[in-house]
UniProtKB/TrEMBL annotation:
Stored PROSITE patterns: AA_TRANSFER_CLASS_3
Protein name in UniProt: 2,2-dialkylglycine decarboxylase
Keywords: Pyridoxal phosphate
InterPro entries, A to Z: Aminotrans_3, Aminotrans_3_PPA_site, PyrdxlP-dep_Trfase, PyrdxlP-dep_Trfase_major, PyrdxlP-dep_Trfase_small
Superkingdom to which the source organism belongs: Eukaryota
Signal peptide interval: none
Organism: Exophiala sideris
Membrane-spanning intervals of the chain: none
GO MF annotation: an example: transaminase activity
Cellular component, GO annotation: mitochondrion
PANTHER family, per database record: ALANINE--GLYOXYLATE AMINOTRANSFERASE 2-LIKE (PTHR45688:SF13), PTHR45688
Length: 467
């Protein structure tokens, strides 16, 4: 039990307490949710960096939970939070406020026709749960289709359209959940005669299996433009259009989840704008993470037709923080910053993405444990394998050691350390990262590889250097 002095010190006094003391309190009183806490207790975050209770400075190469698009503690966002907390923080869900109206207006003005009305919630899982229920109501059907290696949240509906350990030991999922193969070119089973990924045959085969399994009540497909948790797998050029065609053949809706790709992270304001997607406009678009720059804010955007049908047919998705003004004000400020600095910021993000991609490929030439590098702009994944010259077998343990060593050296580069996600180190720094910070991060990442047993350093003669 905490003594009164510990209670009184609280968060404001956390920097004065040792990392060991804080870690002990965390172990005694905090509930874990699927992963162990990292050793360093973070007491401060600013810009590109985190500081732990032991005084270590760490570059954040994952933008928190892939969310802090503009970095931690952005001055304009801090000011918005402060002013909103003072003047308009939380309301009854049925009430509407200027920040919500203004954010909805700003968003739909930036989105293509057919994405006309928005509502706001707290998390990506919540927004996807809402989108799934909206699709079921509109179509009058209940079967949902997702992509293997996707992540859409931890609510019951979202869990059903993804493969991960969160599905285990919690009883049956919602009925009518189906899965398409992940379009992973690196480990693809379907290949063209030249060895390239035959994603079209793969997709057609997946649908043929779903058609056989379906009870005739297919409602919608949900997909990420870049499968982040699955290892930063971008949808191949033309895939979104082919997926939309399959939906239209079956009178299904298309839901696109832009939790991580929206607001410039993927090089476009929204990933659905990318040329590879062929101008496809989803029936429902969800956003979270980057929209609130790390604060709990998500959005569901759909057409006038679907919104009107929902209104007329009693659609209800009440939650405590639906359309809350404070997070909406933060989302509006984030969007305003991105739009205000649009040309410069998106150009910078693309340039930094090219620099990151080139730097990682240079490192790859010296380490056999790097099997593949993929992604888009400032969303890149590094596949860690036993030895790329011998195959594509993942080596999650080596990946964990590389990630841990990077953290020791002051670089937060997290790994999808579950077997169903293949062991890919995901890199998604804030898009404000500078040239100097990028180069430091690349040097530190290579140093982590150099100091990790099993990384497979390649000498100039092509032989592997033992560690």
């Amino acid at each position: 039990m905490l003594i009164s002095s510990e209670i009184e010190s609280g968060a404001s006094g956390s920097t004065a307490r040792s990392n060991a003391e804080l870690s002990r309190l965390a172990q005694e009183n905090c509930f874990t949710f699927g992963a162990e806490f990292l050793p360093g207790v973070v007491t401060r975050a600013e810009g590109m960096y985190l500081w732990t209770a032991s005084g270590q400075k760490v570059m954040d190469w994952t933008s928190g939970q892939m969310s802090c698009l503009l970095g931690h503690g952005h001055a304009e966002i801090v000011k918005t939070v402060t002013e909103s907390a003072r003047s308009l923080d939380h309301l009854y869900s049925g009430m509407i406020s200027p920040p919500v109206i203004d954010l909805a207006t700003a968003l739909v003005n930036q989105l293509p026709r057919g994405l006309d009305k928005a509502m706001f919630l707290s998390t990506g899982g919540e927004s996807n749960e809402c989108a799934i229920r909206l699709a079921k109501l509109f179509t009058g059907r209940f079967e949902m289709v997702g992509l293997a290696a996707s992540w859409h949240g931890s609510t019951s509906g979202a869990q059903g359209v993804q493969y991960n350990a969160g599905r285990k030991s919690c009883g049956p999922l919602m009925p009518g959940m189906h899965m398409l193969p992940s379009p992973d070119a690196y480990r693809a089973v379907f290949r063209n005669p030249d060895g390239s990924h035959d994603w079209k045959t793969e997709l057609d085969y997946g649908w043929s299996m779903i058609d056989k399994a379906s009870c005739g009540s297919l409602a919608a497909v949900i997909v990420e433009p870049v499968q982040s948790s699955g290892g930063m797998i971008p949808l191949p050029p033309g895939y979104m259009r082919a997926l939309k065609a399959h939906c239209e053949q079956r009178n299904m809706l298309l839901i696109v989840d832009e939790a991580q790709t929206a607001m410039g992270r993927s090089g476009d304001l929204f990933a659905i704008n990318h040329a590879d997607n062929g101008g496809v406009v989803p029936d429902i678009l969800t956003m979270s993470k980057t929209l609130g720059n790390g604060l709990p804010l998500s959005a569901v955007v759909t057409s006038n037709h679907i919104a009107q049908h929902a209104r007329e047919n009693g659609f209800m998705f009440y939650t405590t923080h639906a359309n809350d003004p404070l997070p909406a004000a933060v989302g509006l400020k984030t969007l305003q910053i991105v739009l205000r600095d649009d040309a410069a910021l998106l150009h910078h993000a693309r340039r930094m993405g090219h620099q990151l991609h080139a730097g990682l490929h240079d490192i790859m030439s010296r380490y056999a444990c790097i099997g593949y590098i993929r992604g888009r702009c400032l969303m890149l994944g590094v596949e860690i394998v036993k030895d790329r010259r011998e195959g594509t077998t993942a080596d999650i343990e080596v990946g964990k050691r590389i990630s841990a060593k990077a953290m020791e050296l002051g670089l937060s580069a997290m790994i999808s350390a579950k077997s169903y996600f293949s062991g890919c180190i995901r890199i998604a720094p804030p898009i404000i990262i500078s040239d100097e910070e990028m180069q430091w991060g690349l040097r530190t990442f290579e140093k982590a590889l150099e100091l990790t047993e099993g990384s497979g350093r390649i000498r100039e003669n092509g032989l592997q250097t033992p560690l």
